[in-house]
What does this fold into?
Amino acid sequence: MHPRPLHRCRRHLTGLLVSAFLIGAFAASPAAAAPAPRPQDELPPQEPGVTLRVFDVQVPLDKLCDIKTGQTPNVDRLMPGIDWSSSDDFGVDDHFVSEIIANLAVPEDGTYAFRLISDDGSRLRINDSTVIDHDGLHGAEPKDGSVELTAGHHALRIDHFDRTGGQQVTLEWKPPGAAEFAVVPGSVLSTDADVVRVTAPGRKECEGALDSPGDGLPLTEAHPDYALTDLRPAGFEPQVTAMDWLPDGRLAVTTWGGTDNTTGEVYLLDNVQGETDAGKVTAKKVADGLREPMGIKAVDGKLYVSQKHELTELTDADGDDVTDERRTVATWPYGGNFHEFAFGLLYRDGYFYLNLSVAIDLGGATTDPQPAPNRGSTIKVNKETGEVDYVAGGLRTPNGIGWGPEGDMFVLDNQGGWLPSSKLLHIKQDRFFNHYTNPSGPFDDKPVTKPVLWLPQNEIANSPSTPLQLTEGRFAGQMLFGDVTYGGIQRAYLEKVDGEYQGAVFRFTQGLEAGVNRISMGPDGAIYAGGLGAGGNWGQEGKLTYGLQKLSPSR
Ligand SMILES: [Ca+2]
Ligand SMILES: [Ca+2]
Ligand SMILES: [Ca+2]
It folds into this structure.
């Protein structure tokens, strides 16, 4: 999926210490009066330097602010030490907030004095305790503080902001026995190694006085119109990548299997509908060894699965549900990139429909040139002949396809290269949706079709997934869609004007056990939500990385 990590890293880094290259050098017992260093075995591999993240808030601050969670920084760099005063160092001139995160390796127990020089305000924390509060508007002035530290590694964090004019953060220290302050040497600073440093342009927001209903902050609980039921029997932890219904009422589920693996599976679940609970549900594995399947459809007694590289027909010849025969129905351009998914699977009148995402580089930029042509498209596949036709293009990470009003086809595309914020699209033949590739896609010469809805990034969406039209209840006719990273399910009110859809999006529900990768309307009228989470920011913070629940109308 799209690796735009690692804003969540900030949180766990705060409590994590250690450097692989220093392990064993400074082992010591924590002293009673000092914050305890963490055991080395809790800590991820380290590399020398510090992490600098900068958020372009574009508003004048007069004190430090808390950046709203879930926002990708504008700048995320590995820096050799903490002594910066040019706007090139920070990557933004004015009106920015920076976070500096590192682990500090302390050679011996004792009192450590620190001097924080900043323009404008800043704050030094070690092991989550404030050592120097240097907040407020000022020039590059020093402020000192000291702390008792035991030998070992300690989590260091500096928060900083610059309003206008000059900008600086310099951290000096005076270890026990030293006579003078000196810039903290890079040799005692480290940060998590091999992280994918992902950035995104645009304005970032602080938590603040303007936060109120309608502020874009997420919901936390399940929608009061629905009763929430867990559907995972003990030990069943599916990373759900597709769902469909069998004529006998069972639910077919595919699981992801992890990046670049061929360990996706298919399960048939019974007793999920109506009055039930997790203890009554049974899950039977009927196929495995699939390449990151992202769509499943039951047609005429057979299961069809969209793997990354092909559409596969699964046949159970002897009636025990377990697949005995596999047949490649169709293949499409596939270059082996981790992000080349075949998202979703619809079927109508002899044709399957699904989306192909583009190849991207680690960090999120669209791969140039693409390893395979004509990605970023909606395709249709003739069930009998396997012939592939291109329906629409200019897509990036279209992790959601579904039917909407008037039987029209809708897709949700995910923010990233060429796409400043996620959007809901109405797919029609020959349409182009503004994500260009090299080489050009099949519809790059067409005029750009505007989205049905823009979904402001991190205000109401981050990684939207399956769209689903409601047919009953107070919102009948409107559409829902899940979201992997923002989480929960959102509701889209649509109207058609002069043949084109427009509308508005509302938060609908949270309170689910995982970020929502797939939703499906059960024959019992409940909304089934399949969860998924993975590394980076593909997954909802604080939630499980797998999940299966349903929301049953309760009033
Ligand atoms: Ca400045
Ligand atoms: Ca300044
Ligand atoms: Ca069988």
About this structure: The pocket of calcium ion (ligand 2) is lined by residues 119-120, 162-167 (CB under 6 Å). The chain has two helices and 38 strands. Confidence is low (pLDDT under 50) at residues 1-34.
